[in-house]
Amino acid sequence: MTTESLDVTVDGTDHQTPVEPWRTLADVLRDDLGLLGVRVSCDQGVCGSCTVLVDGDMMASCSMLAYRASGRSIETVHGLVTREGELSAVQAAFVERFGFQCGFCTSGMIMATTALLNEHPDPDRATIKRWLSGNICRCTGYEVIVEAVEAAAAKLAGQNER
Amino acid sequence: MSVADRLRTLGQHQPRVDALQKVTGAARYTQDLVLPGMLHAKVLRSPHAHALITGIDTSRAASLAGVHAVATRDDLVGMEPTYGWFIKDQPVLAIDRVRYVGDVVAAVAAEDEATALRALELIDVSYELLGSVTSIDASLAEGAPRLFPDAEPGEVPKYGAGALGEKDPEPNICYRFSYATGDPAVFDACDHVFEDTFTFSRCQHFHLEPFVSVARWDGDMVDIWSSTQNPFPVRKELARVFRHPEHQIRVHTGFVGGGFGAKHMCRTEPIAMLLSRKVGRPVRFCLTTAEGFLTQCQHAARIVLRTGVMADGTLIARHCRVWLESGAYSDASPLVSEKAGYRSPGPYRWQHIDTAASCVMTNATPAGPYRGFGAPQATWASESQIDMIARRLGLDPLEMRAHNLIELGQPYVPGESEIDTDMHLGLDLVAKDIGFAQRASGSGRGIGLSVGFKDAGGVNKPAQARIKVMTSGRVLLQCGTIELGQGIRTALTQVAAEVLEIPAEWIRYADVDTDAVPFDQGTNASSGVTVMGKAVERAAQDVRRQVIGFVAEELGVEPSRVELSDWVARVDGVEHPLPPLITSIYGGTGFEFVGTGYTKAVNDDRAPLETPCVFWEVGIGAADVEVDRQTGKFTLHRLLICGDAGRMINPDLCRGADEGAAMMAIGQTLFEQMVAASDGSLITSDALTYPVPSTAHLPEAFDLIIQEQGHGPGPFGSKGFGEGGMLVVASAVANAIEDAVGVRITSLPITPEKVLAALDEQSGSALSTHPEA
How far apart are CA B68 and CA B51, in angstroms? Predict the structure, then answer.
């Protein structure tokens, strides 16, 4: 039973923590770092609730072994709020458009949207639907989420113009 | 100034009170709870659909390092070992037999889940296999194996005129609800009598937060933290099962990550509590998504409708027989059968109704409440058959519905409350918006309509709320309605804010804790806004009256001369802020004013279901579908849903609720289905094998019309909202397919294979090799 040392940057902070080789990134984020906003639902990499960004790419943290994150930069929902306590454009759009209900998919949905808008700053509806099709929301019916993504894109475009 | 002018947030865009917590990840769910010294539970489940247990040996498991306790049937001694709603038939741990693949046989508490899972592999159970029944037909067959050789303890709820509940009326039927009114002889006078059979597949709730609870049995006190919709019923049942005083059990519930009916009764709590008693430490029991599939699901159903009608389309009489697949334990099946039976006639005028719904026990996952509570099954059959009859009689489905709808203000059945929505208005809105009159039937593209309805607000359901006003003027709202995602914290906060005339931000909706909040029957039946809302409105009125009375007394004026808003009293134009007034009398520590509110429908024997229905929830739907005759594939071009919120407290919440319901129904209609192998094990058993709707399944156009007819009995004329969309999608799509290509699908889900098989049958093609799915 070997324990690896995990060197990882999470939401801009460097962490060095021992980790057993079978533990998932979600386990470490939730249980060791206390980042409980990373939600685990299906635990099979299907529902998207646990989505985080690994070097900017979407990843199901429940299905990625933690040691594989060594030397990489992880972004979670906890890192989106600025030091001044301001919501990111995506978070603000989800509030404004009621893009959540029970909230359990929301962290993953917001991270997936963040990645989407990094890649496609002005996505059309088809792109949004395709990009988010790996994130399950059992509550909303998705229309409000698609609208929230569109609103976030518009908001970011406005910020970039200034 | 009128009341309307004073409204601050009602009917306006008002962000959710839980928004910041939920978009920042700060919201806490039961899944997140960690207590000092907490152990983790896992359970051993039956691999057999039906078997006697001939021996359990836990010695190897108990000696594994890190294992603190192994519980089996032997630990149930001295308890009432079974639980359920009306019929107490589900053992905490299997006693003499297992009744489905997944039935719980033994439980382990260990340092961590991995150790608990390893321990399960060391438990030896020997079984003697029994014959099993894994479908409604198999269960009802002559000589079929019986799940319960003896009658289980239980009771039948009280019913009023025309309604009847029977426990164990036939082998493998644990309960039957029936209702009749009018003279059956009117069938004889009908021009036509049509009998049609429909089948309904079972879905799984797929709530994202799993079933989870933490129990801490410490001395006499038991604390349970649970992801439940119904903390008070859970407390009551745990007290009964453990023969533990109810006042020494405390159930805590914060945010719940989705329920849709699944989290309505004991799930993980009894085992967590049993293990905590055994080890003297807190025990967390969290199920996987796959275990959720072995815990709760919707009722599959067979529905036979015999409907008598005149040649002009006038509906005369309906005979409904519903068989619901209840699975291995009765759970809420008696309640679901009551609703499925009662709602099967649909929202039409009948001279005679004879309806019965039976709960059929099978060796399968227990079925329970599922969004719509029997109404999806009832509406699927009823609204499909209405279209079929219209087509057979050469009538327009829209006109035939309109001709028979119960009018606003008329009772559903004798002794029932009056229908509180003008369904003609909703139906006209939908038909015009979707262009029903302009459709080209038979062109390959068609439009289908459906009118869903349900009695709502809960049967005989009381509600109590408490509002505490602190010296600072900040307010705590305490009631037992659980935030499952529907936005009830926001809606009830808005109701209180309007009555108190204060900003909504000054109010916090307290987490639910059975020690702290007044009793509540549970979060169900779309009752939050209408029933609890009324109690909150009254609590706010009560506390406001107290504050005004206090101010009037201190200032020596008549209460009628005191105006109060934002906790500033105004008397003859002079302003008196509340906090200094309070401390001048009560001292620097201040005081809390406490207001209470209560509501309940009055019991009435003339009403079939103990009390007249609180309000009627309608969903009117239309689907615009195009069918590819070559493949059977069809495209949902547009789905239009319409409901009546009475008056909207929060338009964005109303929208989210009904769109979410409609999306869940799209899954039910198109592909969701729990499928079991012949040995009773599930084939679609987890997130990988059981797809649910994603953004990829959004219809090309998905629209919602919210009416505000103003007849709701809730605060400000509101009504519950958010199940209507669940009821109508399946029948609207089936009706649209027949409109498009002339074939009728009578079983769910409506797959391309079924459509193609029906098209092949229609064309009489001898080359067809497509099996009847």
Answer: 28
Nearest Cα of chain A lies from the Cα of B164 at a distance, in angstroms, of: 35
Q: Which residues contact A13 (CB under 8 A, 6 or more apart)?
A: none
B46: which residues sit within 8 A by CB, 6+ positions away?
B94, B98, B100, B101, B102, B103, B104, B105, B127
The SS3 assignment for B715 reads helix
Give B414-474 as a DSSP string. Answer: TTSPBP-S-HHHHHHHHHHHHTGGG--TTSSEEEEEEEEEEEES-SS--EEEEEEE-TTS-
Nearest to B385 by CA among B124, B544, B196: B196
Q: Three-state secondary structure along B218-233? A: ECCEEEEEECCCCHHH
- Listed by number, the residues of chain B in 27-86 with a beta carbon closer than 8 Å to a beta carbon of chain A are 27-29, 31-32
Is B376 exposed, middle or buried, given 0-12, 13-18 or 19+ CB atoms closer than 10 A? buried
pTM of this structure: 0.97
Which segments of B556-639 does DSSP mark as H helices, in order? 578-586
Q: What angle do CA B467, B471, B477 make, to 5 degrees?
A: 20
- Reading the block at residue B66, the tokens are 């890190």
Give the sign of the dihedral formed by CA B14, CA B18, CA B20, CA B24: negative
Q: How far apart are CA B704 and CA B621, in angstroms?
A: 9
> Which neighbouring-strand residues pair with B165?
B177
CA A142/CA A129 separation, integer angstroms = 9
- What are the beta bridge partners of residue A58? A53
Chain position carrying tokens 């164990």? B168
Q: Is B433 exposed, middle or buried (0-12, 13-18, 19+ CB in 10 A)?
A: middle
The answer to whether the CB of B369 falls within 8 A of the CB of B264 is yes
CA A77 – CA A88 distance, rounded (Å)? 10
Confidence bin at B773 (pLDDT 50/70/90): very low
d(CA B221, CA B366): 31
Query: Given phi > 0 = left and psi -120 to 50 = alpha, else beta, which region is B708?
Result: beta
B303/B201 Cα distance (integer angstroms): 12
Check if A146 contacts B (Cβ < 8 Å): yes
Cis peptide before B369 (omega within 30 of 0): no
At B768, the pLDDT band (50, 70, 90 cuts) reads very low
Give the sign of the dihedral formed by CA B368, CA B369, CA B371, CA B377: positive
Q: Give pLDDT tens digits for B424-476.
A: 999 999 999 999 999 999 999 999 999 999 999 988 899 999 999 999 999 99
ipTM of the complex model: 0.98
Pairing outcome for strands A4-10 and B615-627: unpaired
> Cβ A141–B15 below 8 Å, yes or no?
no
* Partners of residue B475 on adjacent β-strands: B469, B507
List the one residue out of B376, B413, B486, B418 whose CA is nearest residue B709: B418
Of B378, B350, B356, which is closest to residue B162 (Cα–Cα)?
Answer: B356
pLDDT score of A46 more than 70:
yes
CA distance B663 to B646: 22
Task: Give CA–CA dist A78/B381, Å, rounded.
Answer: 47
From the list B81, B108, B105, B86, the residue with the least C-alpha distance to B243 is B81
Which of chain B's residues have a Cβ under 8 Å away from the Cβ of A110?
23
CA dist., res. B398 & res. B439, Å (int):
12
Instruction: Give residue for tokens 């805590």.
Output: B252
The rounded distance, in Å, linking the Cα atoms of B449 and B664 is 18
**Interface residue A19 vs chain B (CB under 8 A):** no
- Report the C-alpha gap between B535 and B521 in whole angstroms: 13
Cα nearest neighbour of B17 on chain A: A95
DSSP tag of B62: H
Cβ(B469)–Cβ(B475) below 8 Å: yes
Q: Are B26 and A106 in contact (CB under 8 A)?
A: no
Nearest CA in chain B to A106: B23
